[in-house]
Amino acid sequence: MAEVRVDKYLWAMRIYKTRSIAADACKNGRITMNGVQLKPSRTFKIGDRFSVRKGPITYSYRVLQLSENRLGAKLVPEYMQDITAPDQLELLELARMAGQTGRDRGTGRPTKKDRREIETFMSDSYLDELDWEDDEE
User: Fold this and answer.
1) What is the residue extent of each domain of the chain?
2) Which of 100, 118, 132, 136 is the least buried, fewest Cβ under 10 Å from its Cβ?
3) Distance (Å, rounded) from C-alpha 76 to C-alpha 110?
């Protein structure tokens, strides 16, 4: 096997859950190689480097081996090397930190009272009500 379709390889390497989602990602311009958007029917060869944009982060990979069959998660590093830039990994960590809000996990949705307090706090009128003159003294 000298070449594998892009959508099939992305599915086999567990980057996307289904092959149709991988094909849609290609069609929407999320998969690139050397700055060029890839079509799902394009093929990968050993040594190719490609990028996958998921949310704010752009992951980069190098093809080490080819496979048309879906692999177990433990086997993926033998077939594909993650060469994502450190600055992109920092964005991922920042996104994780930003997702951690003041609510504890498992406490459920905010109540109506909680929601009203949040809306009051986030509104501009709340800041206007504060007495800023006392702070200047």
Assistant:
1) 4-99
2) 136
3) 40
Q: What is the pLDDT of residue 101?
A: 59
Is the entire prediction scored with pTM above 0.70? no
| Among 61, 84, 83, 74, CA closest to 9 | 61
State which fold the 4-99 domain adopts: 3.10.290
Shortest CA distance to 4 belongs to which of 79, 54, 59? 79
- CA 11: distance to chain centroid? 16
Please report which helix (H) or strand (E) contains residue 37, including its range. strand 36-37
Please tell me what DSSP assigns to residue 83. -
Q: Cα 103 from chain centroid?
A: 23
Q: Encoding tokens for residue 80?
A: 């594909």
Contact status, residue 63 vs residue 47, Cβ threshold 8 Å: yes
**By three-state DSSP, how is residue 40 classified?**
coil
pLDDT at 80 over 70: yes
Cβ proximity of 85 and 49 under 8 Å = no
Residue 85 has pLDDT above 80, yes or no: yes
pLDDT tens-digit readout, 6-32? 999 999 999 999 999 999 999 999 999
